[in-house]
Amino acid sequence: MFGYYLDLALHSLKRNKALTALMVLAIALGIGASMTTLTVLHVLSGDPLPGRSGTLYYPQVDARDDSGIMSGKEPPPQLTEIDGFNLLHAKRADRQALMTGGAVPIQPDSAALDPFYVEARYTTADFFAMFGAPFRYGRGWNAADDEAKARDVVIGSELNERLFGGANSVGRTLRMADSLFRIVGVLGDWAPSPHFYDLNTGSYGYAEQVFIPLQTMLDLHLEHNGSTDCWGNGTGGVGTIYPAPSCVWMQFWVQLDTPAKAADYKEFLVHYSEQQKALGRFVKVPNVRLRNLMQWLAYQQVVPDDVRLQAGLAFGFLLVCLVNTVGLMLAKFLRRANELSVRRALGASRRALFAQLLIESGVVGLTGGMGGLLLALLGLWVVRQRPSDYAALAHLDPVMLLTTFLLALGASLLAGLLPAWRACQITPALQLKSN
Amino acid sequence: MELRPILSTLRRHKITAGLLILEIALTCAIVCNAVFMIGHRLQHMDMTTGIDEHALVQVQLAAIAPTPDIYARAREDLAVLRQVPGVQAVALTNQLPLQGDSSNASLKLDPAQREPTLSASTYFGEDLPQTMGARLVAGRNLQPDEIVNADVVVKALASGNTKGLPVAVTVITQALADRLWPGQNPLGKTIYLTTQVGVRVVGVLADLARANAYNDATAHYSLVLPLFMGVGKNQSYVIRTRPQDREAVLKAAVAALKKADPQRVVTRQRTYDELRGKFFANDRAMAGILVGVIVALLIVTALGIAGLASFWVAQRRRTIGVRRALGATRRNILNYFQTENFLLATIGIALGMVLAYGINLFLMLHYELPRLPAAYFPIGAVVLWLIGQAAVLGPALRAAAVPPVVATRSV
Question: How does it sit in the membrane (chain B) (predicted)?
Fold first, then answer.
């Protein structure tokens, strides 16, 4: 029966080619636009460290004074240098890393390469293990190296490729900002997106190529990049190398393996704030936050507004396309009232008619869905050509492929159900008589 | 034109007519909001900066090794750049309007004030307004003897001993003056940057947009402070030249700077027009997407209307034939379908207006978009009426061409 209905459907669709094409195209356009924007949204709001993000937390304490220069109820989004090191040295979490961003000049040994700048992350020993950064060669430095201000560096795979042709460069020296560093590790391909641990440097498509111990950076006066917010008499690095003590410019991440530990840590942050208040450093009542990674990304509204707006627009467009197709399909089915009545009079059940019509609309919907998938691939290709920082990430993953398929199926059923049902309500006798 | 027969026909096609109305309403609502958003983006992209945009280029350098004396280095660079042929003026600045990365300060009118009045963009540099071409409308520019090296100021602030420093003065924009002291003369008034540091306003600029001018309402709140920053990765040289000489001057300036101190890397070299284009790239893309959506929506809706009208015409051929046989003219038939479409479009538009308003309320809540001005509603209405009439014209003409003899034939 299915084969026969399919044959009937194709026959009917062929009779009215322009209209069939219009319905298929409308569904394809709607699904193509929706899936393109939905995929971008999905990629941008994804989990940068699946499996790990649940145990990573971003502690915030409130060191602001009462001057009101930095206002707001929320504690500052970063830490002062003093608080950062205090919390780091307290070692109350399973793992912890203090960090900030910057750029350093690389001075290659070979005369064939001109000096160039690369993005750098200044951090502490636990960074690599805590974030699961994969090492291709060697390993990170340890806490003793941090305190010793070791001239150690971990480089990214891209820089290793550029300087050493991808060979194992562990143990070799690297001249940066006129200082000699020893390469202790080379990372594999690693660029968590969004760049969750420091959103100030740009949220997407950003991967540092140089990792240097934070204390070494401070010792050598390497340049700092990123956001700096100050209160009191703090100047954000105007006329000084580093921001003043009343400026926040460092990020601090901790790993807490169980919810109980997270609760304890929050308690610790409150105690720390009270203690600092007793010492006269803090003036506000303890105001702390301990968000996990995904909560932090949501709080920072990392997905651009325009991307969400585009998704909304695309779904509005899809809705119009669907309504359009339903209307046309309905008109088409009702126009065939005669034919349907004859079939009913000859003994076809209402169910059989319904199935036949649903198959016809299903063919339109699925063809439109396939077209939509192709259009989505084209749309994503267009997105990748755009200059935005997230452009390179716009790819269809299996989840979104399945979503597209389900959306196409759902859309085609929706577009077919109402017309098919309505067309089956025809009273055959009346219809035949009136003609 | 008698409406009753049209209404009674439509009542027999409730679902189809309802779907058409829904489609028109949705299209109308989306088009109204999309046109408004395009207008909003275009207005944002049209922002004035108050500077002589087509005459400026920017060069930014980063040192490979730490610079021993950043202030002497910068003075020498400025002298070198002044010798480059075609250079009319040059200044060291911490930022340019619409650059993106920015330096800002919270301003107070009274040092005892608890919450700052507002945040403004802070420009540091010597001869900055003159080089950029920002027009002075009152008072005077900053004088060379008022300029202080940044480290001197910071040390004095840290020690609390500010005696050796010249009196701190500033030049502010008209927009900032109007916001801080509405209707008053800003010259001679004091702005507090911290509880201790006050700067006296000595000049007012017609305009100088912020480096982070994302919000139209605060985009022109800027002040120029007499600080000389010295070289650094966030500082850059802004050079004024004749528009046709920009490319040549840029090339020559970079070469001269590299010759003066080879131990550095050029991180930015661009005309101001390029800088401006980059700042608005996302808005331009979004406006393009919105135009695309509007066009696609209108095409889909027009084809939908035309398709549905064709069906109705085909379905009613006999009725039309009977009407023609009973004396209806071709024009009567044509008018019938045009009026029918007008009626459906009007209901759809009315519904669409309500929907457009609802969507706008949602957007205002979530995307900091202003209220949809009433002027945009008629735009949506007129566009949809026109589209509807254009789409129905073909099928209506076909209907009018149905000969009366059809009435006498059975199917």
Answer: Multi-pass membrane protein
